[in-house]
Amino acid sequence: MGLRLLLALCGLATCCRATSVPLVVPEALHLLSRGCNDSDVLAVAGFALKDINKDREDGYVLSLNRVSDVWEHRQDGLGSLFYLTLDVLETDCHVLSKKLWKDCGVRMLHESVYGQCKVAFYVNKPRRVLYLHAYNCTLRPVSRRMIHDTCPDCPAPSTTDLSNPRVLEAATESLAKYNNESTSKQYSLVKITKASTQWVVGPAYFVKYLIKESPCTKSQASSCSLQLSDSKPVGLCKGQLIKTDMKTSVSAECEFFESQVPAPEGENSAAKQGPENLPKEGTASTNPSSKAVPRGSVQYLPDLDDGKPEGSQEKDLHEAFPVQLDLTTNPLGEELDVSFLFLWPVKEKLLVLPFPKRNHRSSECPGPAQMGNPLVLPP
Ligand SMILES: *[C@@H]1O[C@H](CO)[C@@H](O)[C@H](O)[C@H]1NC(C)=O
Ligand SMILES: *[C@@H]1O[C@H](CO)[C@@H](O)[C@H](O)[C@H]1NC(C)=O
Ligand SMILES: *[C@@H]1O[C@H](CO)[C@@H](O)[C@H](O)[C@H]1NC(C)=O
């Protein structure tokens, strides 16, 4: 630790001389540049991503491709606030499935969606607290042009909105088939979440869509217009529609989400602190009834090639994944009351600094990637 701190200090001093920024504030001395392949950093990144996925209600579970940058801000006797920049990949699991990212399969290259998240994550090991303070992510689909160059026959992504009537047709036909084969419940379409097309023996449409339970019975199916007002999506289906002159072939395959029974609140806070409850991966958790509010969002941007003349790509690569995480405008930081994370009635405050800029990144960053193909790594 001593050496690390010293190195960090030297680093700060050099940077300050070079850019003539005013004096380093004392608190900044606790801001340590960490290695992106350090085992504890990888563990923290894993917990942070798990909580991000848990916080979301839309889209697919994100998995960790690599840690791109990491700073640890040691708080006096109160654990550490980590400022993480994570390179992520979309998996096959919908966030509503509540599956852990480590249990989800990564997409094939031609259907990859990748991006970057900035996260402020608080860790207090002795008091067994893990808390997601704020995050923001930006995602893009893999470059269609690059995929086409190497795999001209791969399915090409298609819009999931109604601008392509064939996509909607594929989803409704697929669901009709599923409902027809279902012996009990009937389902209706919530929305299409993925779509792609490919020439097989004729045009083929592949879709993924969310379904909810329909109050209609099978005999009413086609004429039924009853709607359950607040019914939630219950599953994710995969369908395809292939048309040739001779025949139409339709398929449907649905996976249902595990019922989402929320854990009783008392149990949750007990799990956080009792010394006999050692944290296992996946148990320590953030408090759902927290007072500190900021969480975050995931922004989807189009393919990097869209709307760009060929060759002009290299220019503003760093603006290609704009991820904004404004924690505070005060360069000296701002206090954050985290008393609610602890059982006893004591005021506990963290110091939150502005998210560190990437231009003084640690030499041990980025870390090794799970999927090292440059097509799915943000610059
Ligand atoms: C519904 O299923 C039955 C058999 O289970 C089949 O004979 C019928 O053709 C199916 N209808 C549609 C529209 O798929
Ligand atoms: C997250 O990003 C959005 C824009 O995508 C921005 O409006 C919002 O302020 C950001 N949140 C934080 C905490 O910076
Ligand atoms: C990352 O860490 C693991 C285990 O600690 C090690 O085996 C691996 O070689 C490291 N990779 C890099 C690129 O440093």
Unreliable runs, pLDDT <50, ≥5 residues? 1-27, 260-290
- Please count the helical segments: 5
Spatial order of strands in the largest sheet: 1-2-3-4-5-11
Question: Helical amount among residues, as a percent range?
Answer: 10-25%
Largest sheet features: 6 strands, mixed
The bound ligands are: 2-acetamido-2-deoxy-beta-D-glucopyranose
CATH topology of the domain at 28-143 and 303-352, anyone? Nuclear Transport Factor 2, Chain: A
Structural class, from helix and strand content?
alpha+beta
Give me the count of strands: 13
Distance between the termini: 30 Å
Secondary-structure element pattern, one letter each? HEHEEEEHEHEEEEHEEE
Q: Which CATH architecture of the domain at 28-143 and 303-352 is right?
A: Roll
Strand content: 25-35%
Pfam family, one: Cystatin
Region (Disordered): 261-314, 359-379
Signal peptide: 1-18
Keywords: Disulfide bond, Glycoprotein, Repeat, Secreted, Signal
Provide an overview of this structure:
With 379 residues, the protein is of the alpha+beta class. Among the domains are: 28-143 and 303-352, Nuclear Transport Factor 2, Chain: A (Roll), CATH 3.10.450; 152-217 and 232-256, Nuclear Transport Factor 2, Chain: A (Roll), CATH 3.10.450. The protein contains five helices and 13 strands. It has helices spanning 2-19, 39-55, 144-150, 165-181, 265-273, and strands at residues 31-33, 60-74, 80-94, 113-124, 129-141, 156-157, 186-199, 203-214, 233-243, 248-256, 296-300, 334-337, 349-352. Strands 1-2-3-4-5-11 form a six-stranded mixed β-sheet. The radius of gyration is 24 Å and the shape is globular. It starts with a helix and ends in a 27-residue tail after the last strand. Residues 1-27 and 260-290 have low confidence and may be disordered. Bound molecules: 2-acetamido-2-deoxy-beta-D-glucopyranose (3 copies). One 2-acetamido-2-deoxy-beta-D-glucopyranose is lined by residues 37, 39, 368. Residues 134, 136, 294, 297, 299, 324-326 line the site of one 2-acetamido-2-deoxy-beta-D-glucopyranose.
